[in-house]
Amino acid sequence: MDGIFNVLKPPGMTSHDVVGALRKILNMKKIGHGGTLDPLAAGVLPVFTGTATRFLEYAAHEEKSYRAELTFGIRTDTGDTEGQVIAQSPVRHLTEKEIEGTLASFRGEGTQIPPMYSAISVKGTKLYKLARQGIEVKREPRPITLYALELVDYTGKTLVFDVTCSKGTFIRTLCEDLAAKLGMAGTMSFLLRRKAGVFRLEDAHTLQEIAADPASCCEGIEPILAAFPRLTVNSLQGRRIAQGVATTLPGIQEGILYQLWTREGLLVGLARAVDGRLRAHKIIHIPEVEDRTGKKP
Known about the structure:
It is built from 9 helices and 19 strands. By secondary structure, it is an alpha+beta fold. The chain folds into 3 domains: 83 residues, Pseudouridine synthase, CATH 3.30.2350.10; 131 residues, Pseudouridine synthase (2-Layer Sandwich), CATH 3.30.2350.10; 56 residues, Roll (Archaeosine Trna-guanine Transglycosylase, Chain: A, domain 4), CATH 2.30.130. The strands form 4 sheets. Strands 1, 2, 3, 4, 7, 10, 11, 12, 13 and 14 form a 10-stranded mixed sheet that branches. A 5-stranded mixed sheet has the order 15-17-18-19-16.
């Protein structure tokens, strides 16, 4: 089964756990997820199966939207309530103006230092593996963008907010940084991913729903390819490009990556325009072409 499953990940499972569960449900090995969710978190987790895994990189680059809860007064080693408390502070009352001013200061382009408890690799080792050994290494700030950051609720002890952000943004770190800007310790106590690129929470399926009817829960890869212009070719052109032959086509723009389809509706894959010709970039199907006798090769 080749396609994408928009999985509603429950809290308590790792993203790897979800992939493992789907491997058993679908009885297939070629599966990968499009963006890690913390075990504490719930929500949208796109999972790619079969030939669709070739396009995983494009899912990971898309923006994501979350609803998060920040609890004031404590900071933990993991950045969420599952970790050990390493710092505490008094909890002071915040005014609406103070909250809005702080949120506004984080909107737009900025930088963020990744947490030690993350899947980022340093010299081939995941940071979280080093963290579990009590080892902390220097992490360089990374560019991020917060496209939207809005207050949902404030209780005095907790602050709930919605955020839409670029890839590589750690909401746990954002919670800590917001709290620090407000003069307190803070940690993430709840996280729900509401959107990952084109995949929305309202369209997500539980693992139980997928197990009951996998076919109806499986989407094609077209949503991921929507960002690339579509180009239709005949079967011979599609076959030539798929086999590595750079092919001249009218109207293509230099450097653009195209989703390539045959007139019969077969997705060949992705191809890039280079020096006025279309070159294979990521191929999943090679079209069949009849020879002069009407036979297919």
